[in-house]
Structure formats: structure tokens, C-alpha cells
Write a structure and sequence with these properties.
12 helices, 8 strands, disordered C terminus
């Protein structure tokens, strides 16, 4: 486990493997880096370093109860700060759901830091009705039922971590309701993803993983993004659980994609100069 300071706040991350080739993985909304406990070690090697980060307001990172600290642009800046901390001018950046959108945000506003993108189940135009229908009641419940959720958080936090898949679900309940509500408020008040015109300017190689039968992450959003990006490939997973329960196929697809990206990528002088200026 590692940590660094971002504008006075502590941000935690796990690091697997070594080497100059870096893959940054970003968790979903109100989840944490533990959702990559299996993927990270499987992809890491002597040449590849996999870094799984907890964004501010999530997991083991600081969780201030201030909605002004939570937005897609601010999350993207935290990933850039992580790269500065690691001493890397650029990396392959990706994640699931919220993490996918944060990676897109970084690619549109600080493209020099991104050598490739992994986008699993992005939340774009077609997901907006389901997002509003799902998270507005959750936010209301966190606010009105805060005393109950405080008790639930303490009780569930005492449950030992024994099952990978079960713990992914329990991590949602382990979080305290105040910071979780602030995260939701901050995100719902801002833009949830870059606009289509911004996405169409992304040129980095991109691996998109989508799956059907999930209204929060409709496959139509993944297909739309694949059409918008000039250098993207779309893979359909059998379900949201495939990468968690049977990761062999998708791990192989991602490993092959990473090899292609790193074989072609050579950091340009602009990115290198920016990274040195930040240190």
C-alpha cells in the first residue's frame, strides 16, 4: 500500500509489480480499489506495474464531507497527481463505471498523461435515466436515514473480509453515509462524463469492455463510445461478473492490448518536460 497528499488530503493506492510500464485502475462509484484485488496481481510483472487507487471520498483515502471536493474534473486531477507521485509522465489509465468516466475525463483534458485507455462499462448518454432513478433515492436515503446507515456502517465494517465477491458488495455498506452522500451530491450537480465532441477528440488506443442486461451501464453506451473514438476496440463481456468470477479471457484481452500500447508508445518531449516541471 502507498499514499500521497493531494491538496492537503491523503490518497491511498495499492501497487503490484514493477517497471516503467504503468497501468492505473480506478474503481466504481462508492466502491474502492479492493475490486481489483484479483486483476491487479494477475496483470503485474517485472516489467508492468499495476496501481489501484482510491479516489478522494472512497475506500482508505480521506473522505471529507464536502460536496465541493467531488467532481469528474477533480477526480481526473487526482489521477494526474498520482502519476506525478509515481514519477511517470503518462500511463495506461482505466477503470470501471465511475473509473471509466474519470479516465475519459483525464484523456480529454490532460491527454499527455494518457498513453492508452481501458474503459469498462462507461456511464454515458444512454445511462442517464437509470442513473437518476438509482442514485437520487440512494442520496435521499443517506440523508434522511443517516443514523441508521451509521449503525449499519459500523456493524458491517466489523465483518471480516472472507469472500472477494461478497466484500465488493459489502464495501458499499461499510462506508459512512455522510461522505458517501457528499460524493453523490457533488457528482450529480456536475457533468458525469465528457461531452460527445470532447470524446471524439480522443486519439489514444482504447479497449472498451461492455455487457448487456445492465441498465446502469447499457451496452449501447459502450458501442456508442467505440464509434466515437478513432482508435477503439469493443469487447462484450458475458455479464458484469465475468471479470470478477472468470477473469481469464478478459485478462488475456487486456494483456494483449497493453503490449500493443507499450510497443507503440514512446513518451514525447512535451509529456516528459511537463512531468519534470511538476516534480
Amino acid at each position: 500500500m502507498g499514499e500521497f497528499r493531494y491538496e492537503g488530503h491523503r490518497i491511498e493506492y495499492d501497487s503490484y509489480g514493477a517497471g516503467e510500464r504503468v497501468l492505473v485502475l480506478i474503481h466504481g462509484l462508492l466502491m474502492n480499489r479492493r475490486m481489483f484485488d484479483r486483476i491487479g496481481p494477475a496483470l503485474a510483472s517485472a516489467d508492468t506495474r499495476v496501481v489501484c487507487v482510491d479516489l478522494l471520498g472512497h475506500g482508505g483515502s480521506d473522505r471529507p464531507e464536502d460536496l465541493r471536493l467531488y467532481s469528474m474534473p477533480l477526480f481526473a486531477r487526482q489521477v494526474a497527481a498520482l502519476l506525478d507521485h509515481l514519477g511517470r509522465p503518462a500511463a495506461v489509465v482505466g477503470g470501471a463505471s465511475l473509473g471509466a468516466n474519470v479516465a475519459l475525463e483525464l484523456a480529454t483534458h490532460d491527454s499527455d498523461r494518457v498513453s492508452g485507455l481501458l474503459i469498462e462499462m462507461p456511464v454515458l448518454d444512454n445511462a442517464l435515466p437509470a442513473v437518476a432513478a438509482t442514485f437520487a433515492p440512494v442520496l435521499l436515503g443517506l440523508r434522511l436515514g443517516r443514523p441508521v446507515f451509521e449503525v449499519v456502517s459500523r456493524v458491517v465494517s466489523a465483518v471480516p473480509r472472507t469472500s472477494y465477491l461478497l466484500d465488493i458488495g459489502l464495501d458499499f455498506l461499510r462506508q459512512r453515509p455522510g461522505p458517501s452522500g457528499a460524493v453523490l451530491e457533488g457528482l450529480l450537480l456536475g457533468e458525469t462524463a465528457p461531452h460527445r465532441e470532447e470524446r471524439e477528440r480522443i486519439v489514444q488506443p482504447t479497449l472498451i469492455v461492455g455487457h448487456s442486461r445492465d441498465p446502469l451501464h447499457p451496452f449501447s453506451d459502450s458501442g456508442m463510445l467505440a464509434e466515437e473514438l478513432a482508435n477503439a476496440r469493443l469487447i462484450e463481456a458475458s455479464s458484469i461478473l465475468e471479470w470478477r468470477l472468470k477473469p481469464t479471457r478478459l485478462n488475456a484481452e487486456l494483456s494483449a492490448f497493453l503490449e500493443e500500447v507499450w510497443a507503440a508508445a514512446t513518451p514525447g518531449p512535451k509529456a516528459t518536460a511537463k512531468a519534470k516541471a511538476r516534480r
